[in-house]
Amino acid sequence: MADLDSYRVRIDEIDKEITKLFEERMNVVLNVAKYKMENNLPIFNRGREDEVIQKNIGYLENKDYSGELEEFYNDLMEVSRNLQKRKMQEEEKAKNAEVIKKSKVLDKKNNGDKKIGFFGVSGSFTEEAMLKYFGNVKNPKAYDEFEDVFLAVKNNEIDYGVIPIENSSTGAIAQVYDLLSKYEFYIVGEQCIRAEQNIIGVKGTKLDDIKEVYSHPQPFAQSTEFLKCHPEWKLIPFHSTSVSAKLVSDLKEKSKVAIASKRAAEIYKLDIIKENINNQSQNTTRFIIISKNLESDSECNKVSVVFSIDDKAGTLYKLISHFAENNINMIKIESRPMEQGTWNYFLYVDFDGNIESKEVETALNLIKQNSPYFKLLGGYRKNI
């Protein structure tokens, strides 16, 4: 019969092999972390972890150890997640520190040779927001789709892109939030515009002539009360309000109108048939300015971040409490489903503060430590 010492010797030999395999596993874990960072994927994937546990339980010859093996792998994967978090946070912190050090806020009214693009065509609310934010812009580029603006920034066609992100009556524009997590860009500014929606058409058009109405889905949603009064009208979603106005101008038919701005009516020489049809008289759209580079200084007073949460009781409360504990006022919180996993969400948070302040740094570091995924979206000047 073997004695205790021989058992311990064998355990030491096994532990040595386990340590080698542990180190090998951690090296692969870091490669996985790198891939996740490059592809904006969350650290935690419950489906994958459950699959790993069940697969390895299947390898057991003695099923009596199933519970212990499950506990072992749960602990091992928690260690792996924590390593990924630590490395991702170290890289993110170093990246942010370098970016902040190099960042310089653009003199938006003296933008020189900077290339600027916007969603829509001439006459859109987005173009209006661009002009209000930047002032005179030389040869701005127009894009038909939201993602086209992001791709233009990615491919260096433009230095800054202007896109709508939320409206006071219809809320967030979900696709834009999803694009913010997909692309590694920063919000460097915002501009709010009163979005007065109008029925516009070719000269001489009357309400009784109308059969088809073209516009972006947002103006339809912002003008439901007025449109309910005309159930006979066919509502046709289009790329943007300005593109709709251009189409109506080109078609030259009294039966076809657009919902768009007064500026669009002026540009495309259309009559305003009915003005300010939106549900809210103070209907306002917030636009953001995106760039590859972070631009922030001591005068910036608004911060945007995105992070995910573990699927555990109390996690959301714990993360959100870091704002209150550091006397930070949250302005907005928006949730969007993640591509991977069911009922997993990204949380987008806007709050008052400056990214270089001690309170903000403390709160964000605590959130990073307890979140599978975190990204700073930008620090910029609030537009009220």
From TrEMBL:
Residues 1-88 form the Chorismate mutase domain. Residues 73-100 form a coiled coil. Its EC number is 4.2.1.51. The keyword tRNA processing does not apply. One of its GO terms (biological process) is L-phenylalanine biosynthetic process. One of its GO terms (molecular function) is prephenate dehydratase activity. It is found in: Cytoplasm. Residues 115-292 form the Prephenate dehydratase domain. InterPro entries: ACT-like_dom_sf, ACT_dom, Chor_mutase/pphenate_deHydtase, Chorismate_II_sf, Chorismate_mutase_GmP, CM_dom_sf, CM_II_prokaryot, Preph_deHydtase. The record marks 285 as: Essential for prephenate dehydratase activity. It catalyses: chorismate = prephenate; prephenate + H(+) = 3-phenylpyruvate + CO2 + H2O. SUPFAM superfamilies: ACT-like, Chorismate mutase II, Periplasmic binding protein-like II. Residues 304-384 form the ACT domain. It is an enzyme of class 4 (lyase). Its main location: cytoplasm. Pathway: Amino-acid biosynthesis; L-phenylalanine biosynthesis; phenylpyruvate from prephenate: step 1/1; Metabolic intermediate biosynthesis; prephenate biosynthesis; prephenate from chorismate: step 1/1. Keywords: Amino-acid biosynthesis, Aromatic amino acid biosynthesis, Coiled coil, Cytoplasm, Isomerase, Lyase, Multifunctional enzyme, Phenylalanine biosynthesis. Catalyzes the Claisen rearrangement of chorismate to prephenate and the decarboxylation/dehydration of prephenate to phenylpyruvate. This is Bifunctional chorismate mutase/prephenate dehydratase. The lineage of its organism: Bacteria, Bacillati, Bacillota, Clostridia, Eubacteriales.
